[in-house]
Design a protein that fits this description.
Helices cover about 75% and strands about 0% of the residues. The chain has about 55 residues and is mostly helical. It is extended, with a radius of gyration of 17 Å. The N and C termini lie far apart (about 40 Å). The model has no long low-confidence stretch (mean pLDDT about 90).
Length: about 55
Amino acid sequence: MSTAETAAILADPETLMRMAQSEAALARGEVVTADELAAAMAERRNDETATRPAE
């Protein structure tokens, strides 16, 4: 990460808030495995495909 990217992150209050929320979730043990994430992403793709109008 470049110094400019770091500065941009540190200057963005919303990004800092999201990072703090993520760190708190990790501290509480709110994590998913790579397999759980892959399954959730596949399910979302399937849901989007099922609701997409036919071309």
